[in-house]
Amino acid sequence: MPIPEDVTGDEIDKDVRQELQSLPKTLAEDVAKNLVMVARLIDEDPEGAYGYSKVALRLASRVAAVREAAGFAAYASQKYSEALAEFRAARRMSGSVELWPVMADCERGLGRPEKALEMAGAPEVQKLDKAGQVEMRLVAAGARRDMGQLDAAIVTLQSPELASNSVQPWTARLRYAYADALLAAGREGEAREWFAKAVEADRDGSTDASDRLAELDGVEFVDALDESDSENDSDSQAESGTEARSGRDDDGDSDDDSDDKGKGVKSAESADVTATDDED
Fold this sequence. Notes:
The model is unreliable at 238-280 (pLDDT under 50). The relative contact order is 0.09. The chain is mainly alpha-helical. The chain is built from 14 helices and no strands. Helix 3 (46-59) runs antiparallel to helix 4.
């Protein structure tokens, strides 16, 4: 796959670069460039990232960082079975437990929420840092919702991290998940409160909490482009009407009959917080 000229491979994390030192220099550079492309595309073009991850995997399948990158690319492309296999391989190579939550989320993606809950209670969770433990809590709550246990999902999310006023990288997502669960349970007032708290913590726009809050408040957004198109359509219809009137015969009959039709399309989209991890 083509690599843009501005990609040098030096953009990768220093720890990953250190892992690649076990490879011949030219090969390490090629692998690094493909890993950079994975990171660059994974959010906007998951399938593209997946393609680059397969190239890196073909070049250096025995490097843990490559297996991990391949796992995240497959995960982003909803290829959960493949992602789980790659995460397991990376974990065996590195001995790290940091992939435990996303492995459990892969189990959810594969339709095995019970397995995800089993992993949420495993000893490995105690070895995770705070961010990892919060992620595991999100996965467990998602698994409860998968099983139709909405009240249990709400309780799962209730934690010191949720109640804390301190804003951490995971705070917005945790509050968002809690608000979404409350709303699903019909507790709209509480949901609105927590969506508002999620907005306060969401400094980088990682959630659509502001949209969800506006929806609860009855605010409807109109796309400026759609509004412009509507005005143009109205102008066109007016011109057509003028032309039709000027096209009549002297006896008052119309040379051409035409009907103006209007269509209104309204779409709504809701987001659900999903986490999927599996075990080794």
